[in-house]
Amino acid sequence: MPPVRRKFSLARWELIVLNPKGLGAYASARKAKIAPPGRTAVQDFLDLRAKAMERAGIVDGRDVPLVPFIRERGGVSHWNDAYLHKVKVGVLERAGVRFDFRSLRRSFSQCALDRGARYGTVSVLLGHKTTRTTETYYARRKYDHAAEELERVWT
Question: Label partner for 88 (CA 20 to 30 A): which of 3, 75, 78, 99?
């Protein structure tokens, strides 16, 4: 019997993204690191997820998506695009915050870079083959940070 592939490790704060570009789109599975600011929220989510799965009668969640779509009549599946869009619209209406999911990657990238991460590090974490994609579409070095770094290396 093949070993069960774990999709999340609390010890390392990593998860395995099996379909990084969504179901039906090709991309190799890869690891994703949960940054320290998000760990409390992830732990809270996992606790709520466990309770929801228990209520639905799902005992072993290893083969269930990290964010499962639990059907009212029983069973679990992935979220389809239409329902995910409906949830996003609900968040927009309740919170008044306009966003798209790709902007979350851009925000993470820029925040990491602004806090001192190198382009190479951010690029690897985003799953890019080169830093060029990261630099062009996700994060830009701000002048103030570049000037501070210049001062640091010359003093």
Answer: 75
Name the band, by pLDDT with cuts 50, 70 and 90, for residue 62. Answer: low
**What digits encode the pLDDT tens for the residues 78-123?**
888 888 889 889 988 999 888 887 788 899 999 999 998 999 999 9
- Token pair in block for residue 5: 């592939």
* Composition of the chain by helix, strand, coil, percent to 5: 50, 10, 40
Mean pLDDT of the chain: 84
pLDDT number for residue 60: 65
Residue entry with tokens 């806090």: 115
Q: Domain locations in the chain?
A: 100-155
Which residue reads 């069973």 in tokens?
A: 75
Q: What is the DSSP string of 1-68?
A: -PPP---EETTTTEEEES-TT-TTS----EEEEPPGGGHHHHHHHHHHHHHHHHHTT----TTS-SS-
Q: What's the pTM?
A: 0.69
Task: Quote the distance between the C-alpha of residue 121 and its chain's center.
Answer: 16
In angstroms, the CA 116 to CA 81 distance is: 35
Calpha distance 135→123 (Å, rounded): 9
